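Predict the 3D structure for this chain.
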Amino acid sequence: MFINTSIHHSDCVAVVVNFLHVELLIYRVAPVQRYCRVVLTREIVFHISTIVWIGIQTKGGTDVNSTA
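Done. Predicted structure below.
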């Protein structure tokens, strides 16, 4: 997978926050056309759901590198 599950939780949060910040900037700067907004909204929702899913998988004990 493209995300290393051994990454620390705080690092994960920082990455997510930075990512969302960039997404929101793109969302605001983008043309006000309805099509663009719909596409960007779908992209953002997809990315958030992917991040949440990875977080659940990692929290569920699938992280073999965890020392906890």
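Residues 31-59 form one domain.
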